[in-house]
Amino acid sequence: MIRMYLAAAGMLLTQWALAQNRIQGEIRDAENDVALPGATIMVEETEKGTVSNRNGHFELNGMAEGEWDLKISYVGYEPIWATVRVPQDSPLLIRLNPMTVTTEEFIVTGTRASATTPTTFQVIDKSDLSKNNLGQDLPLLLNYTPSIVIHSDAGAGVGYTGLRIRGTDQTRINVTVNGIPLNDAESHGVFWVNMPDFASSVENIQIQRGVGTSTNGAATFGASLNIQTDTKKEAAYAETDHSVGSFATRKHTIKAGTGLIDDRWAVDARLSRISSEGYIDRAFSDLKSYFVSGGYFGEDHVVKVNIFSGSEQTYQAWNGVPENLLETDRTYNSYTYENETDNYQQDHYQFIYAGTWGDYLKANFALHYTQGQGYYEQFRPDDNLPDNYGIDPIVIGNEEISQTDIIRRRWLDNDFYGAVFSLNYVSKNGKVDAILGGGANRYDGDHFGEIIWMGVSGNTDIRDRYYDNIAVKDDRNLYLKSTYEFRERLYLFGDFQWRNIYYRFEGINSDLRTITGSQNYNFFNPKVGLSYETTNGKTWYASYAVANREPVRADFTDSPLEEIPRPETLNNVEAGVRVNRNRYQYSANLYYMGYQDQLVLTGQLNDVGAYIRENVASSYRAGIELDGALQLNTRWTIGGNIALSRNKIDTFTEYNDVYDENWAFAGQESTTYQDTDIAFSPNLVGSVLLDFRPIKNLELSLLNKYVGRQYLDNTQQESRSLDPFWTTDLRFSYSWKPGFVEEMAFSLKVNNLFNELYEPNGYTFSYFVPTEGTSGRELVTENYYYPMAGTNFLAGLSIRF
């Protein structure tokens, strides 16, 4: 590996010395002939780029001789494409026309950070996503962004997948689509399996790490993902994408759009299907989705309707692989019943308006509705009828049967609907940029279970519900955020959010307990900061933010109602610098995230033996994140990121079950630990990316990822941890224009090139048992893991008409 990188470094230096030509130019307003500072200039074939300075001038160094295609864009102006020959005869003079059609970017402005916002963020655009979009779920496409760790139940990136940012799991990461909440209102989780191939309809994603700016939906308690779906295309198009790969993975996508009709109307559509047998035994996925968007694009107003849906059937791999089988049977799956599957469909409807109201005011308003319905099916051998289903023992002759095999389905039928809005005011001199926004949303969910088959039939029918409960949750928020340039290039930022949650539930829970109750919360989440833009492309920033978060559904239903956990509070400090220069860009930031009453699993049981979460008084995450890229010349680019952190709980008490000599439950025993690492929070996460473009339209990339040790619980014991791992992926892409179609592109991705055996996710539990032949006892720990696949590949062909 070292020799390979040294050889690559030598090639980089050689190539760097070859081509030192440059492209120069100036960007100006076509109507008023004024310079446009901060315009973006991109070399499309190489993705090399720069921005214009305060005088509108720009310079791109290290360009090889020949013709290059440039894209020049600036917020509020129509983009321009230009072809330039190197070496140049004279500098370019580019004049941009003010945009006459309201930009769709404002749809997500209310929930996003801008260039002057003093927080830590990164934008991933469509071109970055498409490079890896060969069928795997969205979390895997974000794998090489800072502080992210991804995992997959089936081990191949299709089906149930997830991500953590700074050790924060998906229940604490706010996700919005066009500013509309996506997180499940009760669990706060995001289930990407319900949105197969959604990346094919995404224009860009802004990742904010830390508390970030105010948004809609679940509290941002570690990070947020703000997704913008496809924007309008000027010209009609059709595209088909097909991928095949290891584990019988298949992806088929068809996209088409009308382009602008009469300069005002446009319709876009996508249809996708993904299937995979999975790396883990029987962990197949059968996924279908569609996306349709239509809209009116006037000079001052945009009206869009988005309808998208995903349906999935996945064979369950939730149990993981026990530790003793990792060396001999890494693909082990404890489930063998043929229909041990999860089945769910989710339909989304969005009505969006964005408009310009006069010279200084813009408005955004959206109505949304999401309908979800589905179940997971389970075979339960020798299940206890009175204890688990409330069914009296079955009497046959003189025999009383209280246990039998059953097949059950556990259902979720829910509706989520509401409205979000934002009003953006920019003063005449541009020094004040303020947004008033908010939303009101309601979740209405029905949870119920059915027995669809019994080995011995009891006094129950096939559609009888052995548990049934409903939940309603209202979530309202209002925020005001503003940026004020009180000195030249020095900005003051303030963001103040009020959030109200009213949650009520009633009925019979899956453990047959009666659960009826309600909770009301009012939170105030302030954020303040400063940013300073220098004349040489640097932005310095610092901010302080507070976030409050209510408990999730299980905290209410599993805990005794008089002992429901307290809400969590996060105090977040971010400080850093962002730099965007001609040939390189980088960012560096320090962060501190101090938690009060963070909720964690401790092993504590409720009155029916279910594990519950408890508040820990004080914990924190603190670290430094570095991210950068260097364009050595038109052929070579090197980039990467590294995150170093400490993630600690001041005092943690663990509870372990105790069994007596007859293996009967005899209570629990507690152990207290001081200054331990927070579970699933590695102290080091990093990536190194090397891109080589030997000829036009051909790109080779070597993608490396390192994740340090992760502990499965909060006791910081190496015997309950995930080993550090280093993986390398190889990516190859080539595009050409054969003439009979507009463009064809071939891509190949070899994942885990060196066949690293690793597990990025798992769980653990421990209990005391009597020691055979003695009066003593021993602590038994059982670890379960979710292994990722060894070397595997995905290959794709894209045709654009």
Please, could you describe this protein's structure?
The protein has 801 residues and is mainly beta. It folds into two domains: 1-98, Immunoglobulin-like; 237-287 and 294-391 and 401-800, Maltoporin, Chain A (Beta Barrel), CATH 2.40.170. It is 5% helix and 59% strand. The protein has a 22-stranded antiparallel barrel. Strands 8-13-14-11-12 form a five-stranded mixed sheet. A four-stranded antiparallel sheet has the order 3-2-5-6, with no helix packed on it. It is a multi-pass membrane protein. Its main location: membrane. Residues 319-753 form the TonB-dependent receptor-like beta-barrel domain. Residues 1-19 form the signal peptide. This is TonB-dependent receptor.
Can you lay out the helices and strands and say which pair or pack?
Blueprint: H1 2-16, E1 21-29, E2 40-43, E3 48-51, E4 57-63, E5 66-73, E6 80-86, E7 92-96, H2 106-109, E8 120-125, H3 126-132, H4 138-141, E9 148-152, E10 161-165, E11 173-177, E12 180-181, E13 202-210, E14 222-229, E15 237-245, E16 249-257, E17 265-276, E18 285-297, E19 301-315, E20 321-322, E21 341-357, E22 361-384, H5 385-389, E23 394-396, E24 399-401, E25 403-426, E26 432-454, E27 465-487, E28 490-508, E29 517-533, E30 538-549, H6 553-558, E31 568-580, E32 584-605, E33 611-631, E34 636-659, E35 665-677, E36 684-692, E37 698-707, E38 710-711, E39 721-722, E40 725-736, E41 743-751, E42 762-770, E43 777-785, E44 792-800
Parallel strand pairs: 1-7, 11-14, 34-42
Antiparallel strand pairs: 1-4, 2-3, 2-5, 5-6, 8-13, 9-10, 11-12, 13-14, 15-16, 15-44, 16-17, 17-18, 18-19, 19-21, 20-43, 21-22, 22-25, 23-24, 25-26, 26-27, 27-28, 28-29, 29-30, 30-31, 31-32, 32-33, 33-34, 34-35, 34-36, 36-37, 37-40, 38-39, 40-41, 41-44, 42-43
